[in-house]
Amino acid sequence: MRPRGSKRNPRQPASEDGFGSEEEVIVATQSRRRAAPRVSDDDEDFEIVAKVEDSDSESREATPIVPRTRASGKDASGPRRQPKAGASNTQDPTALIRYPVDSRLTSTRVYHGIFQKLLRTYFYEDYYGPDPGATAAAVEIFRRWIPFDVLPSRNLSQEGSSAPSPWVPPGFESSQSMRMSRWYHRYEEAIRAGTMTAPHTELVGKETASQYTINPNREILLLVGTGNSQRQHKLSLQVPVTLSDSEPQPDDETIPEKVSGWMFDVGGIVLSVSWAPRPQATIQIIAMAVSPFADQDFDAFQDESTTEHPYHHGTVQIWTSPSDPNGNGVASSPRLWRTLLFNWGRVKKLLWCPAAPVDRDDLLGLLAVMCADGLVHVTAIAGDLDSQAETFERVYEPVVSLGFPREEDSRVTSFAWGGINRIVTGHQDGSIALWSVYPRACLFRQAVHHTHVLHLATGYPSQPQLVASHPVSGLSAFIDLSNPSSEIATTTNPSITPQHNMLEWSDHLQGFVSTVPSSKPLNTAVGFFHSRTFPATPRKVLEGDVLLSALAVGVHHPFVLTALLDGSVWACNPMNRVFLPRHAPPGWKIKIFHHEHVPRVRFTGSVPVHPEPADQAALSSRGISRVLQGFEPVTNQGPKAIEFAATGKATGAKGKRKVRTKTKKPGSQPQDPGPAVDEDDDTTMYADPSKLVVHEPLSRVTAMAWNPNLECATWAVFGMASGLVRIQDIGIEI
Questions:
Q1: How high is the pLDDT of residue 652?
Q2: Are 594 and 567 spatial neighbours (Cβ–Cβ below 8 Å)?
Q3: Where is the composition biased (Basic residues) (predicted)?
């Protein structure tokens, strides 16, 4: 008895199980062997999602299929196939044949437009399929931004500029703003009815606010510009200095026509920054959590009774930055609009509500702050932005406080917005909770980890039910709040970073961006975790030889910003590493700027940095900061691949390993043969003493964020440990 798949009898009689008769099987087989029809130029870019299609039904009916004999290759007895009237027997040699790119069948490399990129086409259906509309939307994202290796386009009318997420319906922002307005009206009605406690705030004077505000009483020297053309500035507290595309300007009288950004001093360590959502607004709002330098001065520990700023005092600075509707960058200088004061302790993290009401001109939005008391306090920010005077607002009673104050081991250690009325919190005991702001209620709480939750992010706006978290124990978790009892996944991730802002959601790519573990002590890596495969299959986005200090992902574009402990900030397009094969040419990354700071104590201490006496300007200032800019793009590869490329070796190539040979003499004692030489590994590269550098703690970039508004989506804010803040439009001109 022969098996069913025997080649000696390929034609089986018609079966009764619905697979078709013999004639239908022959027709289907011969039609699949035909050449595909010619592809038009308009459909060329969508070939990566096209399936192999049979010839049209019209051709099948007009052209009967007659099998050939295998021996002679001539047609069997019967009429020869007749071509259509007017059809040519010659084939077009320039016609493009469709590739079989079905992920279930093959991983064929395809041609993708004029850019000649080789894409991992089977990722499209795995990540965004099987819906053809979703796959086509993903293809449009890649076609829009893959030609841009480092930064998006600044002008919205140009190719590669910012665009809303395709995974939300059109008009999503306006609908969320209207829902926010209706929700806030219900909240105000509850206050008038007496079912909710009204928030209590008070505007205080500068004298009362001096107990909370930070005033270092010393200026800071700033050297900014390219390597060969740096200019020196003496920055006073909260006085901005201009940054142009070419070089900085000395004062406001020579502000150039095209201003790319500003720098100013806030007087303390910037722990967290957040842009307020203000679609189609001409004034952008930034909230900053600022902490005194003494909080992280480990060399001179101070008791709370002797410190100048008590630990139960907290401040939040709110800055405004006008935008130019003509697209001339950050034209007007930012200014400090308001300072929030409260007794909840230092602010560790803050985030604006992702939507703002549309019918309230006085209400700017809701600001959630996580303080040292272990709670998340939500306060309403209202006021007139046209007022030029700086105001101080003391907050006694917020809109709501979320957390478990009676549980000592359940302090909030991280949080994220999940909607206009939802906040997800991570706690000290490893649990994750879902809260309703109004009415205040804990909707869900589950023990996910065993230790502190350091990083937490949600999939808002397209998938707010998805929550990813990283704890101290190094066990990453991914949970679906729509079914939390069963939809949960965990994996080991020994990369631990206590700094916040290390886990971000990319709505365009439908995944999370965070740190990934590395086997080398001097190698740091940023990876992309798609929501369907999180956290099992990370794809590397960027690598460096210094540990990470901050991370930011664009809201209206997929570009990523990474800050390292040496004070450098890098930008790249993650799609060039995630969706390109390993044999494709590597992408690019660019260093936006490099910040270095030397505090005053290094000049006046017992062991100064420079043996020669420092000048009087350095001794009288708080310190010296140098900001280098104007760098060129480099290949987006790790230090191992870069060194291999410099030496002409191929990455991963293994050469001959020399083996130790021992020559033993009679009567001699065995000796250590010593280390082997010419071994093709990366041990010597990562053992380079010059790479083991302990950088100045105040040189690092502690917080940064992209602007969530479409008109200013290429704006970014960078907060540094030295107290400097940089607001810049880093989009490129085409």
A1: 47
A2: yes
A3: 1-10, 654-665
